[in-house]
Design a protein that fits this description.
The strands form 4 sheets. The chain has a 7-stranded mixed beta sheet, sandwiched between helices. It has a 3-stranded antiparallel beta sheet with strand order 1-2-3. Helices cover 46% and strands 13% of the residues. It is globular, with a radius of gyration of 23 Å. The N and C termini lie far apart (66 Å). The chain has 20 helices and 15 strands. The protein has 515 residues and is α/β, with parallel strands linked by helices. Helix 6 crosses helix 17 and helix 10 packs parallel to helix 11.
Length: 515
């Protein structure tokens, strides 16, 4: 068949010859629900406005996952199976199903090695509002975040443990694979300071590789990078930036085979991000590679970073805190929000979800629905695929680090004017958005904690009361779980405040709103 497509793609509609993202998304979510909630599965397939109403079905995934522990595993298995059967891979004008892509003939990827120039000992600190927090200063800030409901207790415990164990940060014994190594929210900068063996996978792009090579050169780590050509050890820097790299979307089987052939134990981190529907495609590429490598190297570990703007099962205590915050609103806040809720016909300032769901493990859990409709169903699907892989891999005995990272003012976020303004105004609802350098330091340390601490939830030998507790542990949601209102119904007001705060002195307004 003749086609201009190359690499991993959404299924192409046979009539208009265009990818159908909504149809594919609906089918995957419907399949994930089919065994555990037949009616919701049927409704998802029939949904006419998927882009607007998709949160309903993602919430159904979590609701049904809570009720029975086996449901959480079933949903992950069915969703991933459908996804791998749905996505297509194009090469040499031929179409293949993604699940079969690892059987294709592949070109060899070569490895280039670069040793960092620094002899400095590994060091960890957290850059925060112009300060370098370490030791007691960092312990104090962690306590402030915890008291404010910005982070969960298990997140504080993990960071405190990292402070108490500086020896954890010598990573000369770890081989850490970064899919999307140059990612703004990724841990490259820190791994380069911690003697890690960094296996970097990113696009063949001179700007990308200039960043990766420069970062590693300045540090004490060792870089291993793929290339389609064999490169000499003394290859000039400018040639390396043009020759290194591999494309996750078009060289999926090559990358998988290159990694699977390495004799060392690998720690695989899915941190690549692309805009729009490409984010789902790169999530599927990473998932296919992780699955293949894990099958061939059972001692591999997996790492994911969740977004706080998703829907999660949460402990009963979180729901109690949100309900208490709703009850304790100031009189001024009650009057203002009630007026806006009435005028908007209940579109704004809806009370957060405070009901509890009984699980077959004898406990009750709530739901933190922090999905932001403006981010779209493709973003939600990409992140759900990663949750499914994490849940299933840990269930099968694999070491899995998956933690919720706080809302972060990365370029991909702030280039959306609404999200940028909303995070600027988030403090109105006791939500904190972190700078990229702060998030990077925190999440890199959390990954190391999960690899080093045998009592971490990442360790499959540590018993969890429910599979969904894997995402509850170590969460830094920036306060979103504990707000008084359904997050997406308060977002527009936060955005208005954020827009206005850039132009006007609104300190008195925020004080009146909170008191």
């Amino acid at each position: 068949m003749s086609t201009s497509y190359d690499g991993l793609q959404f299924p192409i509609h046979p009539e208009n010859h265009k990818p159908s993202t909504s149809s594919t998304g609906k089918q995957i979510i419907a399949e994930a629900l089919a065994t555990v909630d037949h009616q919701s599965s049927v409704d998802a397939l029939a949904e006419k406005n998927w882009r607007k109403h998709y949160p309903k079905y993602f919430k159904a995934l979590v609701t049904n996952g809570i009720r029975e522990q086996a449901n959480a595993i079933q949903i992950a298995e069915d969703g991933l199976r459908k996804a791998h059967q749905s996505f297509e891979f194009y090469r040499h004008e031929q179409k293949y199903v993604l699940k079969d892509v690892m059987l294709l003939p592949t070109e060899t990827l070569h490895t280039f090695k670069l040793q960092g120039s620094s002899q400095a000992a590994p060091e960890w600190y957290v850059p925060y509002r112009g300060q370098k927090l370490q030791g007691q200063a960092l312990l104090d800030q962690i306590a402030i975040w915890l008291a404010a409901g910005i982070i969960e207790p298990s997140h504080a415990e993990a960071l405190n443990a990292a402070i108490a164990h500086p020896e954890w940060f010598d990573l000369s014994d770890r081989n850490m694979v970064l899919f999307g190594a140059a990612s703004e929210a990724g841990p490259l900068t820190w791994l380069a300071k911690w003697k890690a063996n960094i296996i970097a996978v990113d696009l063949p792009n001179s700007r990308v590789w200039n960043k990766i090579l420069s970062t590693v050169q300045q540090g004490n780590a060792t870089l291993y990078a793929p290339s389609t050509t064999q490169l000499a050890a003394d290859t000039p820097f400018d040639v390396l930036t043009e020759q290194l790299g591999a494309n996750l979307l078009t060289q999926t089987p090559e990358i998988a085979h290159w990694l699977a052939q390495k004799p060392e134990t690998l720690d695989l981190a899915a941190i690549a991000y692309l805009d729009g529907e490409k984010h789902v495609r790169v999530a599927m590429a990473m998932d296919a590679i992780m699955q293949y490598v894990s099958e061939h190297k059972a001692d591999s570990s997996l790492m994911f970073m969740c977004t706080p703007t998703d829907v999660y099962a949460v402990p009963e205590e979180v729901i109690s805190a949100s309900a208490e915050k709703f009850q304790q609103r100031s009189q001024g806040q009650k009057l203002l929000t009630k007026s806006i809720e009435t005028i908007s016909r209940s579109h704004f300032f809806q009370k957060n979800l405070h009901n509890l769901i009984a699980s077959d493990n004898g406990q009750h859990y709530g739901i933190a629905d922090c999905l932001v409709v403006e981010q779209g169903p493709n973003y939600a699907l990409a992140k759900r695929i990663q949750q499914w892989r994490a849940i299933l891999a840990r269930h099968q005995g694999q070491h899995v680090s998956i933690n919720i990272a706080p809302s972060t003012t990365t370029h991909s976020v702030t280039k959306n004017p609404l999200l940028k303004a909303a995070f600027s105004g988030a403090s109105l609802f006791d939500v904190e958005a972190f700078s990229p350098e702060t998030t990077n330091a925190i999440m890199a340390a959390l990954w190391i904690h999960d690899l080093r601490n045998p009592n971490s939830a990442a360790n499959p030998e540590v018993k969890l009361e429910h599979p969904l507790e894997l995402m509850m542990e170590g969460a830094n949601h920036g306060g979103l779980w504990r707000v008084a209102y359904l997050a997406r119904t308060a977002l527009p007001f936060a955005a208005l405040y954020g827009f206005a705060a850039d132009k006007l002195p609104l300190d008195k307004v925020i004080q009146k709103f909170k008191k």
